[in-house]
Structures are given as C-alpha cells and as structure tokens.
Amino acid sequence: MLSVDSILNEAKRKTGLSDFGDDFPLDAIRLLTEPDDGESRLTVTGKYLMHRALVECLINRLLIRAEVERDPSIVEEVIVRPLVVAGMGRTGTTLLQRLLSQDSRCRPLLCWEALHPAPSPDRGNHRTDPRIAMTEREMEGLFSAFPQLAAMHYMDAGTPEESEWLLQNTLIVPGFLWRPPEFRRYNDWCRKQDRAPAYRYFKLQLQILQRHFPPAHWVLKGNEHVYSLELLLSTFPDACVVQTHRDPLESLPSNLSLDLQVITLKRSPGKQYMAEAVQAMMEDYARTLERAIEVRRQADSSRLFDAHYSRLLPDPIGTVRQIYDHFGYFYDDEFESGMIQWLAENPQGKHGVHRYSLEQFGLNPDAVRRRFAGYCDYFRV
Fold it and tell me: Rounded to an integer, what distance in angstroms lies between the CA atom of residue 183 and that of residue 113?
C-alpha cells in the first residue's frame, strides 16, 4: 500500500528505530504518495516500486541518524579534494568515473555503499560486508524487472555509482523513481526548497562511509551536480569538478530512452502523456545546462575541467591524464595499467547495444539544435 503511514511504519519496523531527525521532510512523503495529476496513474507495480524505494530512503535516514548519535565525531571527518564528475545523463559520466576509480589512491562510491550508506563500513570486512550480498539481490531484481537497463547502464554491488542514491535520501532532491516530469506537485515543491541542507546531508553520508578508512580522495559522479554546481563547490571547497559534454542531438535521445523506460515500469501512459513527458524532459535538460553556465561564469576555472565525449571515447586514457594534470593529482604507470585492463575487460556494448534516435521521440533535430544553441556555443560542443 502506497501511503505515508505504511512507509513510515515499515521503515521503523525493519530498523527498530523511530527518530527520523528534526529536519525530516514529511511533506515530501505526502506529495509522493498522494495520487498525482494527469492522465497516467501509477499501476500496482508502480505503487509497489515507489513504496519500496521510499521505505529504503527512510531506513537509510533512520540508520544515518542512529550512526551519528552513536559516534558524533563522524561530523569531524574531512572530505579531502573529492574528484567529482558532473554531467548530464548519457554524456560519458559512467565511463569516466569507472576509469578514474582504477586509481588505488582513491575511494570510489561503490553501488552497495550508495544504496546502504549506514552504518559506517569497516576496513576489515569492506569486501564481505553483508550489504554487498543484499545489493546483489536488489540488482538481480532490478534487471529482472528492467532487462534493457544492462545495455543502458550496467551496475552491480561493486561498481562505482551515482551520487543521486545518497542525495535522494534527503527527499528534497528528486530520486530515480520520482524525477520530473512525474509527480508535478512534488517537483514544484522541490524547486522551492533550499538544497543546501541536501548537500550537507550528502556530505554527512560520505563522512559516515569513510569513518574507518585512511584519507583518500573520493571519486563521485552525478547529474544532480550539474543543476546544483554552486552547492557542490561551496559544500566541498577543494572539490575538483569534471563537467562532461556531448552533442544534445546524441545525449538527449539516449537520456529520454532511459527515463521513459523508467516511467513505463510504473505507469501505462498514453501517447499524449509520453509526448508531454518528452517535451518536459527536454526543457528540464536544457534549463539544467543553462543553470550550470550561470555558475561557470563566476566559478574558479582552476576547480573545473571540461571533458568532451567526442574526445573521451576515442582517447579515454589521454582524457584522464589531462584531468590529473589539470588538478595536480598523482598519475603513475600502475594507474594507467589499471585503466587499460578495465577498458579491455569492459568494451563498449559488453552488456548489449542501446539504440535510440530523436525521431523515435517525435523530436526535430533543428528544433533541438536551436534549444541547446546557448549551451553548445558556450562549451563549444
């Protein structure tokens, strides 16, 4: 049952905890459980998926709260020079993050950590933590329900993953199952919220995860970081940020293909709903990039590096070397050998071919080019 009480009660029952914290945004849960406006309502499967995802967020919040109460010194953990890939979906962010994660001196955010950040993992059982097996079962269920996902974005418990998994625990940043254009009232509410607390909560989760580990720079990535670039830079004053870029005529339909598949997991949308969703997603994509341009005009260029998909794909190792040179990270043969081996073991299309085009979504290439002209001109895409 998709209701506020059922979600709260299940999270409490599964953890034996009840303190969600003073800043718990109950309004978000209400807006995500009430019937949304529009032609396409959630199916029974959709309600189940939303219920499960929201329960997991609340379980994480309860465990995070309990962990900080148990060890208040967690908040003193210093996040040192995180290397953050900030890019829109389908612009090479996954490839780049996974290459950067081959550096033995870094700490990538692994999938199981992103899904289950608390309590603090222990160095001694980091490879055997029970949350790893739990995440593997969750991934099996996900790929069973959504087999096309492997070709679009393969992941398992040990792959480096998105910051959005941590950010969605705040409930004031849209999660993977409740992104625009769905849940319009919730997303309208989200746009009015100050996201600074969300980024502080994101940082807290990283502090929990690194509590029992020696200092190492995090390797992170996320689409949300493009929208909230100013918060990323202010929350982590020494962060080194790589913004990825790809021609919107290629990245937009790839992104739409993934996001619309997620919608159809939860709904039985008609043509009108899907057509409106396509337009809304394109606008959200464009506005996010425009917002990033505003921040970039005032940001310290030494903290930012632009990685273009057209150069990353043919020369991934050269691109990583340029990133390390720009930010002053230590680069050596061991790191390069690790990247070479990873590329050999993970060729493009290993998990299937993802096919898409603008035309399948009813979009005109000239219209898309005009909408993204400002972005393409500014970043020379």
Answer: 27
Instruction: Please state, in angstroms and rounded to a whole number, the distance separating the CA atoms of residues 105 and 332.
Output: 11
Nearest to 127 by CA among 116, 113, 137, 115: 113
For CA atoms 63, 64, 65, 67, the dihedral sign is positive
pLDDT tens for the chain, 381 residues long, are 789 999 999 999 999 999 998 889 999 999 999 876 565 689 999 999 999 999 999 999 999 999 999 999 999 999 999 999 999 988 999 999 999 999 999 999 999 999 999 999 999 999 999 999 999 999 998 888 888 877 778 899 999 999 999 999 999 999 999 988 899 999 999 999 999 999 999 999 999 999 999 989 999 999 999 999 999 999 999 999 999 999 999 999 988 998 999 999 899 999 999 999 999 999 999 999 999 999 999 999 999 999 999 999 999 999 999 999 999 999 999 999 999 999 999 998 787 766 778 999 999 999 999 999 999 999 999
Q: Token match 């222990």: residue?
A: 122
Helix then strand then coil, in percent of the chain rounded to 5, is 60, 5, 35
Backbone angles phi, psi at 86, to 5 degrees: -110, 110
If 0-12 CB within 10 Å is exposed, 13-18 middle and 19+ buried, where does residue 52 land?
middle
Q: Under the phi-then-psi rule, with left for phi > 0, alpha for psi from -120 to 50, and beta for the rest, what region is 322?
A: alpha
Rounded Cα gap, residues 95 and 101, in angstroms: 10
The span from the CA of 202 to the CA of 232, in Å, is: 10
Every domain of the chain and the residues it spans: 4-379
| Residue carrying structure tokens 């950067």 | 100
Residue 226 CA to its chain's centroid (Å): 11
- CATH code for the domain defined by 4-379: 3.40.50.300
Please report where in the chains the tokens 């849209």 appear, as a residue.
174
User: What CA–CA distance (Å, rounded) separates 337 from 329?
Assistant: 17
